[in-house]
Automatic annotation (TrEMBL):
UniProt GO molecular function: ATP binding; sequence-specific mRNA binding; tryptophan-tRNA ligase activity
Region named Disordered: 1-33
Protein name: Tryptophan--tRNA ligase, cytoplasmic
NCBIfam families named among the record's database cross-references: trpS
Compartment(s): Cytoplasm
Similarity remark: Belongs to the class-I aminoacyl-tRNA synthetase family.
GO biological process entries: tryptophanyl-tRNA aminoacylation
Entry keyword Aminoacyl-tRNA synthetase: yes
Cited InterPro entries: aa-tRNA-synth_I_CS, aa-tRNA-synth_Ic, Rossmann-like_a/b/a_fold, Trp-tRNA-ligase
Keywords: Aminoacyl-tRNA synthetase, ATP-binding, Cytoplasm, Ligase, Nucleotide-binding, Protein biosynthesis
GO cellular component: cytoplasm
Main location: cytoplasm
Amino acid sequence: MEASEPQPKSGPTVPIPEQQQPQEQQIDPWSVDAGKDSQGNALAFDYVAISKKWNTQLIDEKLLERFTKLTGHKPHRWLRRGLFFSHRDFDKVLDTYERGESFFLYTGRGPSSGSMHIGHTIPFEFTKWLQDVFDVPCVIMLTDDEKALFRESLTFEQAMEFSMENARDIIAVGFDPKKTFIYSDLKYFSNHFLMNAWEFSKLLTFNQVRGAFGFNESTNTGRIFFPSLQCAAAFATSYPELWSDVPSATRSETVAKMQCLIPMAIDQDAYFRLLRDNCHRMARPGPKPALIHSRFLTALQGVGGKMSSSNPNSAIFMSDTPAQIKKKINRYAFSGGRETLEEHREFGGNPDIDVTYQYLTYFEEDDAKIQGIAEAYRAGTLTTGDLKKECITLLQEYVNGYQTRRKEVTDEVLELYMKPRKLEWGRSHTKTHNPHCAINDLMYYEITRPMTGADSAIT
Ligand code: TRP
């Protein structure tokens, strides 16, 4: 524990407010609030309660064991440690993989001017890991349209520029260019994508959208239509150029059957509940898109908050210098340690509410080491200062690796990822299949490709 650094604390130093109604947690795609107790103190998010309320499945040991057996990979540390904690039909995706069929990944980001922080990069890192493990294509939607619709002062032109900058940030995560398509909504939407979105919007009533998002009669009509766009992105037929050199002229029934898996933070679930409840009514239906949900990344200030771009001291940004990272962790990371070193040695600290410890669990791969750290912290043999030093080093390495890759994203590289083109994955690029069969058969082959057997562990 560093006695010289003032440690933010809750408890007796905060004046006790009057008794008030406890406030329930509130989560939607535009604002999240963990709620307050009857004293007005911020509570931590209750993820089990969210999962129950929205009827999602919690990720359990059994599911992870099946994943390991099937893929030969150890589950990512974010699965082992519950950062990705919930799903809808992920087991069905595993069935698809077991049958030797392919699926595709879809995720996205609302582009904003600021540099991404670690809370933004984590879902992308995880999606890239899924892409490597399953050897599948991935589409990444940049919702510049959504950002401009929801932020009064933002023009559509500015939002589109943010998309281009954010695409570079996402490329720096390391997605395979052969298997990845990144697009700006405002630039890309046309043809089958729009047809899917219009068709889907025809199935949705204002009542349904209002129920999911709390809109009212004064909400602008763009916001009311937008959910159909975010949902249509989960239909493989929205991207005819990705599956064949000669894109199908009409929306292909075979392509529509391709399973989609959407990794996301739990706040996006409202969109995809609408999708899953209504997609079977499309003219060419496919399997219900599967979802895998993450928690929110804890803000530096403590477990009740979420990292936010509008508060630079709440998060580690991917543009931070090593000195800034050190300062932020030392100065702002909420400590579960004791007031003085003597007390800490005697009574020990609490890693469960310690933000530095939480961040260590995001980035330290070694489970035994993490467990050892938690035990030593509880016993008081490890101080907050020791913990912070360890965490600072890991974060500096992570951000530095990212910044190096970000510098390599030239205009040409950007263009490569954002060009609609046939993606190549699994065996689809080996051309060992019969070149004379019809386009639809070709697509069928590519989509239901047999497993290569080369799915060895990623190092
Ligand atoms: N609406 C999301 C945001 O504002 C962006 C997004 C679009 C997304 N499609 C997605 C996020 C799919 C996760 C999964 O950030």
